[in-house]
Amino acid sequence: QVRLVESGGGLVQPGRSLRLSCVVSGSIFSSYTMGWYRQAPGKQRELVAIIINSGSTNYADSVKGRFTISRDNAKNTVYLQMNSLKPEDTAVYYCNARSAGIYWGQGTQVTVSS
User: Fold this and answer.
1) Bridge partners for 100 per DSSP
2) Mean pLDDT for each consecutive 10-residue tract of the chain (114 residues)?
3) Residue ranges with strand state E in 26-107
């Protein structure tokens, strides 16, 4: 059974940084395309960033230049480094893994507020 566990969310002031982590267990991590999604209150879940097993990445326009996704295959972990955070980044952030199946974590709340 594949399990994804996110951590690193919290309350932060605008302009500050946070790093989210997602540990994957129960499968061959290196074969997965990993992604971070987010869902703000009253809005649909949206893609933030993805990273494939080769290391290639793609980002939503709203986070380009501020967020960085990375992966450590030895630790079965994907990260999302979020810099220059804005109030509009406030959302529940979800880790996603996809290969033959699609799997989600439970989400971690990120609140950007002064």
Assistant:
1) none
2) 94 98 87 95 97 94 98 95 98 94 95 97
3) 33-39, 46-51, 57-59, 67-72, 77-82, 91-98, 102-104
Structure tokens at 1: 């059974």
Q: What letters, b where the CB count within 10 A reaches 16 and e where it falls short, cover 72-100?
A: eeeebbbbbebeebeeebbbbbbbbbeee
In the structure encoding, which two tokens stand for residue 59, read together? 């980002």
Identify whether the C-beta of residue 60 lies closer than 8 Å to the C-beta of residue 47: yes
Residue ranges of E strands in 10-45: 10-12, 18-25, 33-39
Query: At a CB cut-off of 8 Å and minimum separation 6, what does 30 contact?
Result: 53, 73
